Amino acid sequence: MRAFFSRWSLFFWIACLPALSWAQAPVRIAMIETLSGPLAAGGEAALRNLVWATERVNARGGIKLNSGARPLQMVRYDSKGQVEEALSALRSAIDDGIRIVMQGNSSAVAAALVDAIGKHNEREPGKRVIFLNYAAVDPALTNERCSFWHFRFDAHADMRMAALMQVLREDRSVQKVYLIGQDYSFGQAVLREGRRQLTLVRPDVQIVGDELHPLGRVKDFIPYATKIKASGAQAVLTGNFGSDLTLLVRAARDVGFEGKFYTFYGNALGVPGVLAEAGVGKVVAVAEWFANVPGEAAQNFYQSFRQRFPRPQDDYIHMRMQLMMEALAQSIEKAQSLEAFAVAQELGRAEVALAGHTGRMRSADHQFQQALRVVLMDKQGSAGVRFDAEGSGYGFRVIRSLSADQAEQAHGCKMDRPQR
Hints:
By secondary structure, the chain is α/β, with parallel strands linked by helices. It folds into 2 domains: 7-155 and 299-369, 3-Layer(aba) Sandwich (Rossmann fold), CATH 3.40.50; 158-287 and 371-407, Rossmann fold (3-Layer(aba) Sandwich). 37% of the residues lie in helices and 21% in strands. It contains 13 helices and 17 strands. It has helices at 7-15, 40-59, 83-95, 107-123, 157-168, 185-201, 222-230, 243-255, 271-275, 296-308, 319-335, 340-347, 404-407; strands at residues 27-33, 63-65, 68-70, 72-78, 100-103, 130-133, 150-152, 176-182, 206-213, 235-238, 260-263, 283-287, 351-354, 357-362, 367-370, 372-379, 394-402. The strands form 4 sheets. A 7-stranded mixed β-sheet has the order 9-8-10-11-12-16-17, with helices on both faces. Strands 4-1-5-6-7 form a 5-stranded parallel β-sheet, sandwiched between helices. Strand 10, helix 8 (243-255) and strand 11 form a beta-alpha-beta unit. The longest helix is centred in the first third of the chain and has 20 residues, at 40-59. The protein is globular, with a radius of gyration of 21 Å.
C-alpha cells in the first residue's frame, strides 16, 4: 500500500508554495490512520489538526537545523481501522524513508505499531523509527507495554475515567449506571476501569448493564438503546467514539431514553447535533482542552482554527495534537538531528506550551502530563458557552478542571532503554 496525499495535504502545499524554494528537503511524517470506512470521520479530524499544526511550524520558518531550515510534511496512510493494514502502512512508510510515525484512533492498532516498531528498530538500527500517539488511550501502552520509541500525548483511559468520576461522585441523581463500550482493548479497559472506580467512588450506584459490542460494525443501536432504557439506568458510561457513539446516542434519543451520557468523546463528531435540546445538561465529556476553556488566548486559538477550517462538520480541535507537533519540532531542534534515538531522548523530557495550555512528557513511561477538563452540554449563549459545536447551536461549558498534578497517575512501566 502506497501513500497518497489528502485534499488537506494538497491545500497545505498550495497555500505554502514558497516552501518549494527551501534549500532542504521536508521532514516527512507518516500519519497511519482510519481514513475510510465507518470510523473515518475521526481520522479526517486528526488529519486536519495535524496539517494545521505543521502549517504553524512552517509559517515560522520550519525546523531549524544547522544544515538549514526544513519544512514539515504530513503523508497519510489509510489503515482502514485494521491492524494488518496498519502494519502494511508502516512497512510502506519505512520503505519510503519516513522515520516519524503518528497514529491514534485505535489502541489495538497502536499496540501493534509499538511492537512492530520495537522489533524493526532492533533489526535495523540505521533506520529506526519513533511513534507519536495522539489518541490511543489503552493504559497498557504506557504501563506494561511501554516502549522507549513510543510517546503518548493523550491522557490514558484511567486518567479520563478518574476525571469523569470527579463529577459523577457528586451527581446524586444517578443511582443506576449502564456500561457499554467497543469490544477491543480500549473499550474493554474503559468498562473494567469504570466498574473499579464506581465501586470506589460511588459504592451506592448499581451497575444495571455491562455490555461490549463490535467495533465500527453496528449499524442499528436500537436493540442496545432499548435495553438501556429498560434497565432503568439514569446514566450511560461509555468510551465509544466516532459512528459508534453518534449512532448510540441517536438510538437512545429515538427510544426515549432521558438519562445522562458520561463520555470520553461526546463533545463533537455529530453528537451535539443529534441530541440538540435533549442533550442539554445530560452529556458530559472529558479531554485536555475545549473551545470554551476560559481565557482570551484559548478563545483566539479556537477562532484561528475555525478560520482555517470553517465548515461546521470540521469543528473538532485537539490541543494535544498541537502540543505534540510543537514537542516534535522542539525535540528535533534540540537534538540537531533527525536520528530516532537522538529525537527520542529529547521527546522524553519535552515541555511545551500553547495558547495558555502546558504539558510535559514524563520520561519514566512517556505519558504526557497535562490538565484535564470535564464539560457539560448546554445551549450556545448560556453562561460559559460562547462557542457551539459543529454549528449545532449547542456547546460545552467547563464544569471541572484538574491540574496536571491532579490528573497524573502512577505507572507500571519498566522501560528497556537502548544505550544508543
